């Protein structure tokens, strides 16, 4: 399944390039309105058409990519930064009360309807991109804790880890020096998946008005604004959705491809 | 088994208690005073103070938490500030939309996922399997509210087969079902894609087992072995996912309910947050979380009952 790696990297790369390019160049200024040119379908002047304020949709998609990717990346960072150490601690103390508390805490967070809590958190802290990051990041923590623990548990029974233990190395050092490098693959794959889920979650939050605030373009809010005009100018609603799908699909394929590439046991027929 | 059940029951109680505390604290963080919100910013300070006292908002935090918890233990979810009715009544009303919607989308998801998941597993590695995997990959990547907008565009605005939103109530059963169908489809599509993939990989895992080889050796075809033996053994991960999906559909429909203006639980919570009707948020979220925790508990227990291997942990 090497094609999934290539296709995934291409699609996800497209979004990354669009986001990176938007820092230095966009076809038009995204804050510049031209009411006379509103709701124009795709043309040579505006490749993806214009929205209800006459803003260039391609430019908004590019800047929106920046918002989506930034939110998702930092949310994954929060999840990894807190979840991985928790998972390592749980695995190092497997079977103890500490392990039990960490895992029960994980189950508890999983039981919360994530979207409802994300909405609650953004409502409590005020709608903004930063608070969307916090809300999405919190739900990444138990995912990474669980993956880390599951990956680390079997390693603790291996001879070379035992040897390190007997030699007097502390559990913390073993976790960082021996366990972590061995589960890096797992974490990269899970990171890609959470990245794509983060993009979807950010789109959902900004669609209901709790993500990045105007005038910062975001894919979710573009969709929300397009909703009332969907019959007049379908492209205004279709294009941001396609941008989300391309990015999320790319990341999902990339995750699948990486998993196959990094774990040869899965390569045959799965 | 009894010891296992007892241990699970204790941790269930603890989980519910911690969940209630967490929800209470997060809701407390929401800025804005409900009394000020209800009376408007122009109200006299002593009027606001009187209302705060009437609502019990002047009591210290721990006392309010215990009041709330005590009420819930007696089946009283509290009173809504804005609707002036018991929250249990509002929840029951909203459940009449959310529950059928969740059931409908789960049923749709199952109807789509099972045939294609089984087909893909039986034809692993062939072109049709690759096609199923590709399509489900797109299904997972789709934001469901965007798909909902496209459904409205085609089936409501252009073809006029379905209403674009709203809910007529169950006194018109046909119209009610009709208005739930598009949202149910929008919710079901990504869930169907996830379910089909889980089913496929669970089936492929069991198809590699020795007892399937035995079944094939005694003369069953691949399809017969799959239906009679593999499917049953692949059901544990599939049921787990379905349990999670059901609770997701119950609570996670917030955005879809907003697209279609459906008066469900999700929209209730969303509106209650904007109206600072915090007691509604608190109680409604707790009911949802409790439902998820309970479903998980029952599913775990059922597995342990059926499969003794699972009792060890």
UniProtKB/TrEMBL annotation, chain A:
One of its GO terms (biological process) is transmembrane transport. Keywords: Cell membrane, Membrane, Transmembrane, Transmembrane helix, Transport. The keyword Membrane applies. Gene3D superfamilies: MetI-like. It is a multi-pass membrane protein. The chain crosses the membrane at residues 69-93, 179-201, 232-255. Belongs to the binding-protein-dependent transport system permease family. This is Peptide/nickel transport system permease protein. It comes from Paracoccus sulfuroxidans.
TrEMBL record, chain B:
It is a multi-pass membrane protein. InterPro entries: BPD_transp_1_N, MetI-like, MetI-like_sf. Keywords: Cell membrane, Membrane, Transmembrane, Transmembrane helix, Transport. The chain crosses the membrane at residues 101-122, 142-161, 181-199, 236-261, 281-306. It holds the Pfam family BPD_transp_1_N. GO terms for molecular function: dipeptide transmembrane transporter activity. Residues 95-299 form the ABC transmembrane type-1 domain. It is found in: Cell membrane. GO terms for cellular component: plasma membrane. Belongs to the binding-protein-dependent transport system permease family. This is Peptide/nickel transport system permease protein. It comes from Paracoccus sulfuroxidans.
């Amino acid at each position: 399944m090497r094609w999934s790696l290539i296709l995934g990297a291409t699609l996800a790369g497209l979004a990354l390039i669009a986001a990176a390019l938007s820092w230095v160049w966009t076809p038009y200024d995204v804050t510049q309105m031209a009411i006379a040119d509103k709701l124009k379908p795709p043309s040579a002047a505006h490749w993806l058409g214009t929205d209800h304020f006459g803003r260039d949709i391609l430019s908004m998609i590019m800047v929106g990519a920046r918002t989506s990717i930034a939110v998702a990346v930092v949310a994954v960072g929060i999840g990894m930064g807190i979840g991985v150490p928790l998972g390592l601690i749980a695995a190092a103390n497997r079977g103890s009360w500490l392990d039990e508390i960490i895992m029960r805490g994980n189950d508890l967070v999983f039981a919360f309807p994530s979207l409802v809590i994300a909405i609650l958190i953004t409502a409590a802290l005020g709608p903004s991109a930063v608070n969307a990051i916090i809300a999405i990041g919190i739900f990444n923590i138990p995912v990474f804790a669980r993956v880390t623990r599951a990956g680390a548990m079997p390693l603790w029974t291996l001879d070379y880890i035992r040897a390190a233990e007997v030699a007097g190395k502390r559990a913390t050092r073993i976790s960082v020096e021996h366990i972590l490098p061995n589960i890096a693959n797992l974490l990269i794959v899970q990171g890609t998946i959470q990245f794509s889920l983060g993009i979807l979650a950010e789109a959902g939050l900004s669609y209901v008005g709790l993500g990045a605030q105007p005038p910062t373009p975001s894919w979710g809010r573009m969709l929300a604004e397009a909703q009332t005009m969907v019959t007049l100018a379908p492209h205004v609603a279709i294009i941001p959705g396609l941008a989300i799908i391309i990015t999320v699909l790319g990341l999902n394929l990339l995750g699948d491809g990486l998993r196959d590439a990094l774990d040869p046991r899965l390569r045959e027929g799965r | 088994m009894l010891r296992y059940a007892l241990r699970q029951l204790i941790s269930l109680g603890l989980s519910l208690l911690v969940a209630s505390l967490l929800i209470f604290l997060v809701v407390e963080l929401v800025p804005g005073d409900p009394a000020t919100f209800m009376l408007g910013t122009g109200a006299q300070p002593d009027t606001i103070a009187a209302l705060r006292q009437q609502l019990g908002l002047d009591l210290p935090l721990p006392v309010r938490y215990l009041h709330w918890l005590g009420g819930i233990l007696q089946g009283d979810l509290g009173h809504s500030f804005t609707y002036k009715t018991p929250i249990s009544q509002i929840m029951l009303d909203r459940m009449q939309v959310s529950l059928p919607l969740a059931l409908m989308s789960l049923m749709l998801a199952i109807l789509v996922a099972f045939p294609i998941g089984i087909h893909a597993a039986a034809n692993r590695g062939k072109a049709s399997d690759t096609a199923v995997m590709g399509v489900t990959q797109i299904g997972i990547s789709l934001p469901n509210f965007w798909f909902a907008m496209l459904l409205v565009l085609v089936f409501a605005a252009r073809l006029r087969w379905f209403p674009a939103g709203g809910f007529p109530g169950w006194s018109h059963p046909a119209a009610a079902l009709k208005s739930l169908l598009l949202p149910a489809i929008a919710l079901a599509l990504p869930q169907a894609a996830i379910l089909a993939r889980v089913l496929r990989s669970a089936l492929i895992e069991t198809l590699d087992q020795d007892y399937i080889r035995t079944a094939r050796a005694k003369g069953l075809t691949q399809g017969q072995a799959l239906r009679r033996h593999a499917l049953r053994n692949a059901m544990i991960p599939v049921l787990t996912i379905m349990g999670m999906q059901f609770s997701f559909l119950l609570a996670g429909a917030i955005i879809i309910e907003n697209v279609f203006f459906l008066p469900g639980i999700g929209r209730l919570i969303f509106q209650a947050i904007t109206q600072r009707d915090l007691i509604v948020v608190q109680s409604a979220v707790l009911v949802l979380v409790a439902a998820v925790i309970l479903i998980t508990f029952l599913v775990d227990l059922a597995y342990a009952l059926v499969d003794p291997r699972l009792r060890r942990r």
